[in-house]
């Protein structure tokens, strides 16, 4: 019997219940809570990636379902490794921000084939695994300017906000101002999106567990209800057609191998670097923040054996690239489960099990309108803006690099450009202040590399 005293004792011993002051019931409740708060990724990741991934012989709906499945499988693998290897109550899944960078910047804007973009994710994952295995994290962190590291999260938040508002028809293109307010009072998509967003934000402000996924599903149901009632034309608030269930992901599995053909070295290197940079510091920052909330940090403010959860992230990212999805990272939503008392890998194990069970609802996910899915981008974007408070705006050497990092991401629709702007400006500002000793040689090298990259890619050289 799985619930026999002997088995319970083994589970308690394996996860260290006594050491962490917890029990199975508490861990299960915590796992359910974490899953509900991060399950929106099952809907939003395929909504974003399907904008860039097209497969001959398969409909958009079928591709959507393929990506939803790979999203779930990557989350399952990463969270299981987190549970059994790292013994931490953290959930993992393809990360917000990097999926948008993959789709809208790398594939759509730069014209990089999606298979090559997956190859870049794979390389980044392998590098991350190698670094995690030798404990190199602390050395790499020293190379990057603090203002840039602390500004990346807020910059990605602004980027996600813009993408979400555009997809919801709230923000639209304008010849003179580039972007302007859409016809929100007369456009059914914009109107329903705003109502759904308001409902979601009310739930979130009242600390309702699963507020984002509840908001997405409620908005989608409202769209279907208005359509079936004949209030709006068919296909306006709903997908044009609902695809049949499709569970075959073989066209995505291994597609990254094809991506290694005909690579443009400079562009590929910068894409790998950006995936690596954002994933590395986003994961590290999330781990520290969530660990602080759960009381896992030592007296020096460090997370003991931090390389283990970082390895879980790296393994999941590599696996995700192999089966066809983007960079996997630790989710800040894990803090909701910790708040419910989750303290061990059992919480993560429950999260992984629930992700696995969610494979049964893949056909339903394909019926959710895109605008409803993109509510998550706006909400998550707002949440990520909290990183603004981490930047010391009173110091010029923080203000300029940090500010440029943030604003250049949404203004250029590129996370990489924002990071580059911050890295290039940092040594220049420090030099102007006469603080040469604070500049690491690697920071000059990175700045020079980015200047060369912009000259090559924006100067008509390629």
Automatic annotation (TrEMBL):
Q: Main location per UniProt? A: membrane
**Membrane topology designation:** Multi-pass membrane protein
GO annotations of cellular component type: plasma membrane
Subcellular locations according to the entry:
Cell membrane
Q: Which InterPro entries match?
A: Azg-like, Azg-like_bact_archaea, NCS2
Ranges annotated as spanning the membrane: 28-48, 63-85, 92-111, 117-136, 148-168, 188-205, 212-232, 266-290, 310-332, 344-364, 371-388, 408-429, 441-461
* Family recorded in the similarity comment: Belongs to the nucleobase:cation symporter-2 (NCS2) (TC 2.A.40) family. Azg-like subfamily.
Q: Which PANTHER family match?
A: XANTHINE/URACIL PERMEASE C887.17-RELATED, XANTHINE_URACIL PERMEASE C887.17-RELATED
The molecule here is called Xanthine/uracil/vitamin C permease
Question: Source species, please?
Answer: Haloterrigena turkmenica (strain ATCC 51198 / DSM 5511 / JCM 9101 / NCIMB 13204 / VKM B-1734 / 4k)
């Amino acid at each position: 019997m799985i619930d026999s005293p002997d088995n319970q004792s083994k589970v308690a011993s394996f996860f260290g219940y006594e050491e962490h002051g917890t029990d199975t019931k508490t861990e299960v409740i915590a796992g359910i809570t974490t899953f509900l708060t991060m399950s929106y990724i099952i809907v939003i990741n395929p909504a974003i990636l399907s904008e860039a991934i097209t497969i001959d012989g398969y409909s958009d709906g079928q591709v959507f379902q393929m990506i939803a499945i790979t999203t779930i499988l990557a989350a399952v693998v990463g969270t299981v490794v987190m549970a059994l290897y790292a013994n931490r109550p953290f959930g993992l899944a393809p990360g917000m921000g990097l999926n948008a960078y993959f789709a809208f910047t790398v594939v759509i804007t730069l014209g990089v084939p999606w298979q090559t973009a997956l190859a870049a994710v794979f390389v980044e994952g392998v590098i991350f695994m190698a670094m995690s295995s030798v404990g190199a994290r602390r050395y790499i962190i020293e190379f990057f300017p603090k203002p840039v590291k602390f500004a990346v999260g807020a910059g990605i938040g602004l980027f996600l906000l813009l993408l979400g508002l555009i997809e919801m028809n709230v923000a639209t293109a304008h010849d003179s101002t580039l972007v302007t307010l859409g016809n929100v009072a007369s456009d059914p998509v914009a109107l329903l999106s705003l109502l759904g967003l308001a409902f979601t934000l009310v739930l979130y402000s009242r600390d309702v567990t699963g507020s984002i996924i509840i908001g997405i599903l409620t908005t989608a149901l409202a769209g279907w209800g208005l359509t079936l009632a004949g209030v709006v034309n068919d296909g306006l608030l709903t997908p044009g057609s609902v695809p049949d269930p499709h569970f075959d992901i073989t066209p995505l599995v291994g597609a990254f191998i094809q991506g290694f053909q005909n690579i443009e070295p400079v562009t590929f290197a910068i894409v790998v670097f950006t995936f690596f940079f954002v994933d590395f510091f986003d994961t590290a920052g999330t781990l520290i923040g969530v660990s602080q909330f759960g009381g896992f940090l030592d007296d020096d403010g460090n997370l003991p054996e931090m390389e283990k959860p970082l390895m879980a992230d790296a393994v999941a990212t590599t696996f995700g690239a192999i089966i066809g999805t983007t960079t996997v990272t630790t989710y800040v939503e894990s803090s909701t489960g910790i708040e419910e008392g989750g303290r061990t890998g059992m919480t993560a194990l429950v999260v992984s099990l629930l992700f696995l069970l969610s494979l049964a609802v893949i056909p339903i996910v394909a019926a959710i309108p895109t605008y409803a899915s993109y509510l998550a981008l706006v909400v998550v974007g707002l949440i990520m803006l909290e990183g603004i408070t981490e930047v010391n705006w009173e110091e010029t050497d923080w203000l300029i690099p940090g500010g440029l990092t943030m604003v250049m991401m949404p203004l250029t629709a590129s996370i990489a450009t924002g990071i580059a702007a911050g890295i290039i400006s940092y040594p220049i500002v420090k030099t102007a202040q006469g603080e040469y000793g604070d500049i690491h040689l690697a920071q000059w090298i990175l700045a020079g590399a980015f200047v060369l990259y912009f000259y090559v890619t924006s100067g008509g050289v390629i």
